[in-house]
C-alpha cells in the first residue's frame, strides 16, 4: 500500500513552503504538534500557511502556503476542513463533514 | 503512522485520519502531553490564590457544583452510548471520552474539597441548578431510548459546546488552580465537541430526514439550555454586555449543522 504522505508533491512551483517548528502545542501526540498552535488572542496574526479551526479555535498549520480548495485536518477536534476565500478576500477554513 | 508523521498530515486519506484520531493510542499520547506532571488536574507548585472572601468562595463552590453535575451527565451519557455506537471506531472513541469525563468529575470534586467542602458529591447535588438536573434526565432518556443521533446531539453538541464556551470564559478570570483545572478539561472538550459535530454532520449528510427529529429534540431542550447559560453567566461573573458573546460561541456549532 502506498503511504498517501509519500505521494509526490504536484503543487505549482510558486506555492511557498514553510518549515514548521514545535510551538509548544501539547494537545496531540508529539509527532503531530508542529501542525498546530494556540491562537494568542488580539494582536495575533495568521501566516499564509495557517487557518483557524472554526470548531475548536486552534490554529492549523501547513508546510505549504494555503490556497482555496486545500484540505486541512484539525486533530485536536478531529475535523476535516476546506480552505475557502471569504468575501473580503481572506482565507478561512470551513468544516467539511 | 509513525513514518508518515514527518510529512504533511493534511495529505492523509480521510478514512485513515479518522482511524488515527478515534484511536485509544492517539488519545493516550494526547492527554499525556498536558496531564503528565499534574495532580488532580493542576501542578502541585501552582500558587493557591483561591478566593478568601466568603461570598466569592461560596459562588465558586456553586459554579463547581454545576460543573460536577454536567460532567456526571456526560459520564453517564458517554458510557451508555458505547452500547449503541454504530461501529468500532466510535465505540473506542467513546471509551476515551468516558475516561475524560470520569477524570473531569474527579478533579472538580477534588477542587471543591480543596475549597473546604467536606462532602463534595452531596454538596454538588444540593447546589446544582434545576435546569441542569432536568437536562441530565432528558439526556439519559435519549440514551436509554437508544436514539444514537439525538443522544449525540444532546450530549456532544449541545452539552459539550455549552461547557466548552462556559469553561473558556470562566478560565480567563479564574484563580490559578481553577484555571489550570479548567484548561485541562477544555483540551479534552475539543475532542468531544469535534466528535459530536463531525459524527452528526456526516449522518445528516447521508440521511437528511434525521434533521426533523433533531430539530424537535433541540426545541425540547432549548429552554433548559437558555436557563443553564443564564445561570452560568451570572455565577462566573460574565458582564451582561458579554453574555451574548458566550451564547454565540455556544450556538456556532449548532448553526454549522444547519439548526438555526
Catalogue the unreliable spans of chain B.
1-5
Radius of gyration of chain A from CA coordinates: 14 Å
Alpha-carbon Rg of chain B, integer:
18 Å
* Biggest sheet details of chain B: none
* Oligomerization: heterodimer
**Average predicted local confidence, pLDDT of chain B:** 94
Q: Which percent range fits the helix content of chain B?
A: over 70%
What is the molecular shape of chain A?
A: globular
Major sheet of chain A: 3 strands, antiparallel
Low-confidence segments of chain A: 1-8
- In the CATH hierarchy, what is the class of chain B? Mainly Alpha
Fill in the keyword field for this structure.
heterodimer; A: 97 residues; mainly beta; three-stranded antiparallel β-sheet; 0% helix; 25% strand; globular; disordered N terminus; B: 260 residues; mainly alpha; Ribonucleotide Reductase, subunit A; 10 helices; 75% helix
Amino acid at each position: 500500500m502506498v503511504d498517501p504522505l509519500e505521494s509526490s508533491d504536484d503543487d505549482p512551483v510558486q506555492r511557498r513552503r514553510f518549515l514548521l517548528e514545535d510551538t509548544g502545542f501539547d494537545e496531540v501526540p508529539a509527532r503531530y504538534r508542529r501542525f498546530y498552535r494556540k491562537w494568542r488572542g488580539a494582536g495575533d496574526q495568521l501566516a499564509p500557511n495557517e487557518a483557524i479551526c472554526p470548531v475548536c479555535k486552534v490554529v492549523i498549520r501547513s508546510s505549504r502556503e494555503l490556497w482555496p480548495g486545500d484540505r486541512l485536518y484539525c486533530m485536536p477536534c478531529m475535523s476535516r476542513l476546506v480552505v475557502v476565500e471569504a468575501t473580503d478576500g481572506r482565507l478561512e477554513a470551513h468544516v467539511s463533514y | 503512522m509513525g513514518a508518515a508523521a514527518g510529512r504533511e498530515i493534511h495529505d492523509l486519506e480521510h478514512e485513515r485520519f479518522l482511524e488515527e484520531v478515534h484511536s485509544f493510542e492517539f488519545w493516550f499520547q494526547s492527554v499525556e502531553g498536558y496531564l503528565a506532571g499534574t495532580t488532580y488536574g493542576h501542578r502541585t507548585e501552582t500558587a493557591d490564590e483561591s478566593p478568601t472572601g466568603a461570598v466569592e468562595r461560596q459562588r465558586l463552590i456553586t459554579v463547581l457544583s454545576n460543573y460536577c453535575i454536567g460532567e456526571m451527565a456526560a459520564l453517564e451519557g458517554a458510557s451508555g452510548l458505547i452500547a449503541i455506537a454504530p461501529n468500532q471506531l466510535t465505540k473506542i472513541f467513546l471509551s476515551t471520552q468516558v475516561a475524560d469525563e470520569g477524570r473531569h468529575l474527579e478533579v472538580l470534586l477534588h477542587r471543591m474539597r480543596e475549597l473546604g467542602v467536606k462532602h463534595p458529591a452531596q454538596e454538588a447535588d444540593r447546589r446544582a441548578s434545576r435546569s441542569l438536573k432536568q437536562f441530565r434526565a432528558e439526556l439519559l432518556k435519549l440514551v436509554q431510548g437508544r436514539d444514537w443521533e439525538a443522544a449525540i446531539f444532546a450530549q456532544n453538541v449541545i452539552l459539550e459546546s455549552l461547557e466548552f464556551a462556559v469553561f473558556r470564559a470562566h478560565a480567563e478570570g479564574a484563580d490559578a488552580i481553577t484555571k489550570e483545572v479548567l484548561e485541562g478539561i477544555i483540551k479534552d472538550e475539543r475532542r468531544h465537541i469535534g466528535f459530536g459535530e463531525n459524527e452528526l454532520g456526516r449522518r445528516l449528510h447521508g440521511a437528511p430526514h434525521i434533521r426533523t427529529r433533531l430539530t424537535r429534540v433541540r426545541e425540547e431542550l432549548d429552554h433548559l439550555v437558555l436557563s443553564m447559560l443564564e445561570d452560568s453567566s451570572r455565577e462566573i461573573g460574565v458582564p451582561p454586555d458579554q453574555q451574548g458573546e458566550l451564547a454565540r460561541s455556544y450556538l456556532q456549532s449548532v448553526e454549522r449543522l444547519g439548526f438555526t
